[in-house]
Amino acid sequence: MEIRTLRYFLAVAREENMTRAAEQLHVTQPTLSKTLKALEDELGKKLFTRHSFSIRLTEEGVLLRNRAEDLVSMADRIAQEFVTLDDITGGDIYFGLAESHLIQYLAREIREFRMQYPDLR
Fold it and tell me: Given a cut of 80, is residue 62 above it in pLDDT?
């Protein structure tokens, strides 16, 4: 089971319509249908009750929706945490400097840097 498949499942569950969900996901409707059929086969349970113009979740589908929302949310959080890993948020910085008239320029830059990153010391 892949996160992408769970995203597809959640879109269909939310839209209650394959065509609208496919448009939202930017995939073709046959691709979406095949993916969800494969998910049902993998789980061995029917997840949707299909009607002429709508789709409803079965009891098993409701269970999967609840779990899938948690999993997709966690995957999104992990991705966001890795995006922000290189962000500077705080800590200590130490400089070893010799006395010079150029230190005044460094002091000005440090002051501006601390204004931008108040948790740095």
Answer: yes
